[in-house]
Amino acid sequence: MSKKFIIDNCFYCNSTFPDELDPEIIEFFKKVDKEPDCILFIPYMFLYESMNSLEIAGRRKRFKPGIEEGLFSILKEFVKKVEKSPIVDSNNLRKLSKKYLLTMYDASYLELAIEYDAILCTTDFDLKKAAKKEGVKVWRPTLIF
Hints:
By secondary structure, the chain is an alpha/beta fold. The chain is built from seven helices and four strands; from the N terminus they run E-H-H-E-H-H-E-H-H-E-H. The protein has helices at 9-13, 23-34, 46-59, 67-81, 90-100, 104-116, 125-133; strands at residues 3-7, 38-42, 83-84, 119-121. It has a four-stranded parallel sheet with strand order 3-2-1-4, with helices on both faces. Helix 3 packs antiparallel against helix 4. The longest helix is centred in the middle third of the chain and has 15 residues, at 67-81. The model has no long low-confidence stretch (mean pLDDT 91).
């Protein structure tokens, strides 16, 4: 049986942004690359949310000169490798957003994790809390493959 993971933007950024690197998250991505039965999913809007994070971080001068373009290239390659989900049910999305006071972005990650019965990979405190209340498994470094 395959293991399914929903990757959110903040989790992804913790594997690529130089000032946010998390060794445990980097190790997670290395393990997943070696496991053929692991499937990573991202919501339809992931690329846009991640591009926005990169753009804003660049404007705030969080990167050394020349790094930003490389990060955009890495992002595009990542998006090519993972499964893109169809657009989620907007009614459920709005319900989750209202119930847990989440952004629509974050509610889309939660909706996907529920729909695919997948493990949610996030470092966002509010999203983790909402996921646990919905009975969704949340990634942690001790997770066994």
